[in-house]
Amino acid sequence: MEFTTWLALAAICLMGAISPGPSLALIIRNTVQGGRLHGVATGLGHGVGVGVYALITALGLALLITNTPWLFQAIQYGGALFLAWLGLKALLAKASSQLEAETAHAPRGQRGALEGLAVSFLNPQLAIFFVALFSQFVHQDTGWREGILMMLTAGGIDALWYSLVALLLSHGPVLAQLKLRARLIDQLSGLILLGLAIKVVV
Question: How many domains does the chain have?
Answer without folding.
Answer: 1
